[in-house]
Design goal:
mainly alpha
């Protein structure tokens, strides 16, 4: 029963840490962008970012102790490389959460319709859930596709 209590306590601490990270990401994604962002637009990215961030942390807690032989070869540079990989993956989790927020806001959230859904996906998406403003023409339909340049008088 003592180990069961420790497992319960450990799980509660992990959930509390996840909740605090979720709250920090909510604040980060709400107030850091240089634009007005509604609270209802930040929850999904904050949740995904927090779960990824904690998954990366738990992965490092599990993997780093197996680097004993790694330290024999590389010494303190091995620890530096591990910290740099952790920083990179953590930054990617934060940026992925921000990208999810931006996409959610432009497709489903308060600015629905600002991000156009590609033509081949519009029919399937319209059957699944209508989005106000989904009739915004794509860049290719307006003649400004990727790689095209504005043409001058010489054509």
């Amino acid at each position: 029963t003592d180990t069961r209590e420790r497992h319960k306590c450990s799980l509660l601490l992990e959930l509390a840490g996840l909740a605090l990270t979720f709250g920090a990401f909510l604040l980060l994604y709400r107030y850091v962008p240089n634009t007005k962002v509604a609270w209802q637009d930040v929850w999904l990215g904050a949740l995904i970012g927090a779960v990824l961030f904690h998954g990366i942390r738990l992965g490092f807690v599990w993997v780093v102790p197996s680097f004993e032989n790694f330290n024999l070869v590389y010494g303190s540079l091995g620890a530096l490389m591990a910290v740099l990989v952790w920083a990179y993956l953590s930054a990617m989790a934060i940026l992925l959460g921000a990208q999810v927020d931006y996409t959610y806001r432009g497709v489903f959230g308060t600015h629905a319709g600002e991000i156009a859904i590609p033509q081949h996906r519009r029919a399937a998406h319209a059957r699944a859930r209508p989005v106000p403003g989904a009739a915004i023409p794509l860049a290719e339909e307006r003649g400004a596709g990727l790689g095209s340049r504005p043409r001058g008088p010489s054509g």
